[in-house]
Design goal:
two-stranded antiparallel ribbon, globular, 7-stranded mixed β-sheet, alpha+beta, 299 residues
């Protein structure tokens, strides 16, 4: 919501206040969601507490543990659903599944140099979700607004506590690596973890580039000093207060710039270019996302 509002106020209104969405699914979201679901299932199979499970798994060479791939494939295919796509697309079902298989081979959960942390009950902090009350009341209910989010794993890289977030993409390189240095998403994750008692100052972006003929990986650690996390928090609060002001006065500014064409074009361009946008609202479906309904959300 924060990044959408900063890119275009009008897109924020359509997306999160009116909950309007195109009915067609994006291949990037479908492939990324299926990849994430399969990876979560594989990690949970390895680390969910069961009697003697870890000892049994560690006694088997990691690449011969077929159960890991079976669990991953079930979750992967379930999340993919019946989405239809040409086989020659870079992120086809076959290519994306092959990318996940390759990932689990190169970064097997039991031998990966980044390992999950655990709760006191030995529950792995995988698909870590949170919701932190802010000192800003909701303009209608008066309840605190919540800063919420989810990332792939609260983990350790040797002795360093890190936020791990997986990214599927089409290309990796220097520009991909540098984009995380001041990433508000990661700064926010670190701030939220600190509010929950986890002294996190680092994030790791692990990229999987899914191409037609190969798969590439890149692991990028980023260390955030405390003054930068504090600076992000002040900026975040200012953005939320601007959101509330836009809502109170029903004044959502059109971007008319990069936000209209980024990522293949904005899905709301039909509304923004129409003389009467309401005549075209019927081309969208209503879908509400509630982040605090996610399992395992920490408050």
């Amino acid at each position: 919501m924060l990044s959408t509002f900063k890119s275009c106020h009008k897109k924020f209104e359509y997306s999160f206040l009116r909950n309007l969405h195109v009915s067609e699914k994006s291949i990037h979201l479908v492939a990324g969601g299926a990849f994430a679901a399969g990876l979560e299932a594989a990690r949970m199979k390895c680390f969910t507490p069961r009697e003697h499970q870890l000892e049994w798994l560690r006694a088997i060479p990691p690449l011969e543990e077929n159960g890991l791939f079976i669990s991953a494939f079930r979750a992967f295919s379930r999340e993919w659903g019946n989405f239809d796509l040409a086989l020659d697309h870079g992120k086809s079902f076959i290519n994306t599944w092959y990318a996940l298989q390759t990932y689990l081979t190169d970064y097997h959960p039991l031998t990966d140099f980044i390992q999950p942390t655990f709760t006191e009950d030995r529950i792995p902090r995988i698909e870590f979700s949170f919701a932190i009350p802010l000192p800003i009341p909701h303009p209608e209910t008066g309840d605190p607004l919540l800063y919420s989010g989810r990332f792939d794993m609260l983990a350790k890289w040797d002795d360093l506590l890190v936020v791990l977030d997986e990214k599927t993409t089409s290309a990796l390189g220097d520009s991909w690596r540098k984009q995380w240095d001041l990433r508000g998403q990661f700064l926010g994750y670190c701030w939220a973890c600190q509010q929950l008692g986890h002294p996190v100052h680092a994030a790791v972006a692990r990229g999987t580039a899914i191409l037609k003929t190969k798969v590439n990986f890149m692991t990028v650690p980023v260390i955030f000093p405390q003054h930068l996390i504090d600076r992000w928090y002040v900026a975040m609060v200012n953005t939320v207060e601007t959101m509330i002001s836009a809502w109170k006065y029903d004044h959502f500014v059109y971007d008319f710039a990069d936000g209209c064409t980024a990522y293949g074009g904005c899905s709301y361009s039909m509304l923004c270019s129409a003389k009467d946008p309401e005549e075209w609202v019927g081309n969208y479906v209503t879908r509400v996302w509630n982040p605090i309904s996610l399992k395992g959300t920490e408050l």
